[in-house]
Design a protein that fits this description.
globular, alpha+beta, 9 strands, Aminopeptidase
Length: 236
């Protein structure tokens, strides 16, 4: 090999940061003491340990999910990792789910997600969901994280419709939806993950002008690159 050919080989100085390779990793959303960023695989040990220690739902309350995924024991970490890897691998403008690691005053508190409904470029519609560590519930954190991601979707992505659902009986989640300006939008019947039985999900719908906003400004960095990753023009 000649010295000229060797000079063309890539060097470590040319290695791109992960945030430049996959734009969602560069996204940052803040709202007062709340911070949100796209979850990473290195977060899984912390997330699994927090769920094992604190739990996310009370055994004497109605199950808020279609499956008892948080009770997977030793399989929880690997199941979570596989779920996140699937979200990374399947990301496209036609189908994406933004999984946000949420911290409050520097401590991990839960996960907030925003998922496109069909092709967001056409529908401008998305659905939110979240879970919060049990000992962090009842402090207004769930409300604030929802307000932050809703403001991001409306203001930065140009969403026109945002939906949310809660299991019938999950009063805490449904109360947040009503408090933030959502209107009832019927029911969705869902089959249990094991294929046996069903439950009704109470659906809510929110328009941009109806959002009850947070008492703090929502600040976003990395929005332009994120918009490009889901096929939106930079101009909102």
């Amino acid at each position: 090999m000649t010295s000229g050919a060797a000079a063309k080989l890539p060097t470590m100085s040319h290695v791109e940061p992960l945030e430049d390779i996959f734009a969602p990793f560069a996204l940052r959303i803040s709202c007062g003491p709340l911070r949100m960023r796209f979850v990473r695989d290195v977060d899984v040990p912390e997330i699994a340990a927090a769920i094992h220690e604190h739990g996310i739902y009370s055994p004497d309350q109605p199950m808020p999910f279609m499956r008892r995924w948080a009770e997977a024991g030793h399989d929880l970490a690997v199941n979570t990792l596989q779920y996140y890897y699937d979200a990374f691998a399947s990301w496209s403008p036609e189908s994406w789910i933004l999984l946000l690691h949420v911290s409050m005053d520097g401590r991990f508190v839960g996960i907030q997600h925003l998922e496109a409904i069909q092709d967001f470029r056409q529908t401008r519609a998305a659905e939110t969901g979240s879970w919060l560590l049990r000992h962090e519930q009842g402090k207004g954190i769930g409300t604030l994280m929802r307000q932050a991601v809703l403001a991001f979707a409306f203001d930065e992505l140009g969403a026109q419709v945002l939906e949310s659902g809660g299991m019938v009986g999950n009063q805490a989640s449904l109360a947040v939806s009503r408090k933030l300006g959502y209107v009832p939008n019927g029911y969705r019947r869902c089959v249990h993950a094991d294929g046996v039985g069903w439950r009704d999900v109470e659906m809510y719908r929110l328009a941009p002008g109806d959002l009850v906003r947070a008492p703090y400004p929502v600040k976003v960095t990395g929005a332009a690159a994120f918009r490009a990753s889901i096929g939106l023009p930079d101009a909102r």
